[in-house]
Amino acid sequence: xxxxxxxxxxxxxxxxAGTIGLSTALHLSNRGYRNIVVLDRGATIPSAYSAGNDLNxxxxxxxxxxxxxxxxxxxIQAWRTSPVxxxxxxxxxxxxxxxxxxxxxxxxxxxxxxxxxSSHPSQPTSSITSLPTPxxxxxxxxxxTGPLTGWSGYFxxxxxxxxxxxxxxxxxxxxxxxxxxxxxxxxxDAVAILPDAETxxxxxxxxxYIRTADNQIHYADVVVLATGAHTARLLPAxxxxxxxxxxxVGHVRVNAGEAARLRGLPVVNxxxxxxxxxxxxxGEEGGEEEWLIKVCAHGGGYTNTCKEHGSTSLPPxxxxxxxxxxxxxxxxxxxxxxxxxPEFSNRPLVRRFVCWCADTADSEYVIDYVPxxxxxxLAGGDSGHAFKMFPIFGxxxxxxxxxxxxxxxxxxxKAGSSDGKEDIDWRVGGVKDIKETSRKGDDLxxxxxxx
Length: 451
Ligand SMILES: Cc1cc2nc3c(=O)[nH]c(=O)nc-3n(C[C@H](O)[C@H](O)[C@H](O)COP(=O)(O)OP(=O)(O)OC[C@H]3O[C@@H](n4cnc5c(N)ncnc54)[C@H](O)[C@@H]3O)c2cc1C
Known about the structure:
This protein has about 450 residues and is an alpha+beta fold. Helix content is about 25%, strand content about 25%. The protein has helices at about 20-30, 65-80, 105-120, 135-140, 165-175, 230-235, 255-260, 325-340, 395-405, 445-450, and strands at about 10-15, 35-40, 55-60, 90, 95-100, 130, 150-155, 160-165, 180-185, 190-195, 210, 215-220, 220-225, 245-255, 265-270, 275, 280, 290-295, 300-305, 305, 310-315, 325, 350-360, 365-370, 375-380, 430-435, 440.
């Protein structure tokens, strides 16, 4: 297969304006490519279908694997210094703990994490503090008022969080200001990669084009699929290595006084329960008085296997289906709040939703040409840990396109088959299908009634 050698006139079509797609557009533009078009099925950016469309995301370089730690440290540097990204980064620090109930898988993972990050040559000296007891945890993070039963772990001051949706919006605004074309909603909703069996006789195979829901055909020299968890709906062959998996998110409302008291709270990640963040402004609907603490539950993730797609797991096609969370996750979130911030543990959880990622069996990203197509690139397999890489991820996609091959073996297209149930060593709990859970949401029934 002859792959296109890119020139500055090479045309690029990016399908998906989420975390990876926007980052790719930004890096292409930074390197002087002028012919870039981006599609997204969402009516606005960030899209309702993007895993990045969230209040905040953890930005940390604490990986067992020094390869990802190095990249994440580069990403943190970009979050701290880049004019587009830095307004959306808060270096509050990162508390990593286990609770009294944690299985040994969790405690040994934390031991490997701290060994890896504290010995990394680019991690600032004195940034890691060991916290072997609940009182040591409380001493380091006095915002925590709960019993912290059996909590032990460490604190990393060279980490924090990103305001996720505002960061996506900022990059989108930057790309618009640079004249990059976006098609959103039906005109950006990719429904087929051509040529398919029906259209092969009209198109010179094996070049790839995209058909959108408004029946337009989009041609480009290089088509980058950055469709996240939704990828296998468009490219079924990707379903053998990408499994759509969801995790639950909820929020607790706090008032301005409570938010002020919790200002500077580090990201609290209790690896067997869940994680929570410093309160953030609720946005337009809440005005200045309303703030939200985002809370997430840990677990092995939920699949949504679809018979009509050969039992591949895919997110529901309507975003409204995501506005409810499994009751077991709500229970975990409340346990985390009881242990860490009990004054909020009985408040209603608001803005509940499940968020879909594209998981790989080994948690490695996939950035490679798709076999059997010319000029079709898959940029995904985020495995639930790509938002922190938002400032730099697109650079890897452009490197691969310029090199016309993926030099990094771990990011190559994987032909092997994954059932999505593999034991992931940094996660706790098994994988369940979301249809087997009982879910609770603010407006799932109402949303369904409107469909
Ligand atoms: C609960 C939860 C918490 C997380 N926390 C963190 C964290 O703390 N730190 C971290 O680093 N990462 C975190 N992540 C992971 C992070 O959000 C993802 O890794 C990242 O957002 C994936 O980016 P993406 O571009 O692959 O997918 P997305 O951001 O989902 O983007 C995919 C885009 O493709 C569009 N699309 C889909 N299908 C089509 C189509 N057919 N045509 C056109 N457009 C289409 C969608 O609308 C969407 O905009 C978390 C994920 C979850 C679920």
